[in-house]
Every structure is written in C-alpha cells, then in structure tokens.
Amino acid sequence: MAKKLKVTIDRDECISDMACVSLCPDVFEMSEEDGKSQIVEKYRVDNDPSTGIVPGELEECVKSAAEACPVSIIHVEEVEE
Length: 81
Known about the structure:
Elements: E1 4-9, H1 19-23, E2 28-30, E3 37-39, E4 44-45, E5 48-55, H2 59-68, E6 74-79
Antiparallel strand pairs: 1-5, 1-6, 2-3, 4-5
C-alpha cells in the first residue's frame, strides 16, 4: 500500500511569506482571493483549500515546507488509505 500524507494548513494564521510555495509548489499555492497559502486543487480533500492528501513521494517536499514556515501552521501526518 502506498504511503500517503495528510497536509493541513491553519490558513487563518498564514502570514503569506510564501516559503511553502517556494519549497513545494507541487502541493502549495497562494490563493488569489485572500493571498494566503492553500493546497493545490489536485490534492484537496472535499475541495477544502486547507486540507489535502498527497502521495508519499512528496513527503520530503511537504515536510521541508512545514519546517520552513515561520509561523508553524503546516501540519503533516501519515495516513492509511
């Protein structure tokens, strides 16, 4: 079974510094509506821009983005699918 990761963003706390987008553009993008980080549509859960399920091969990318976030609002956890 392929490893998957659940990625969540506390968007209310986002300061829009774009570290996550710079490090992991496959998963993160900036919202045109509010200028805050969000999960790209491809990986969103129920079209929620703050929650996504991403494939395990993006683990290094999403964890780097989470660690680089200056306000520590990106959370990554393994999930069983």
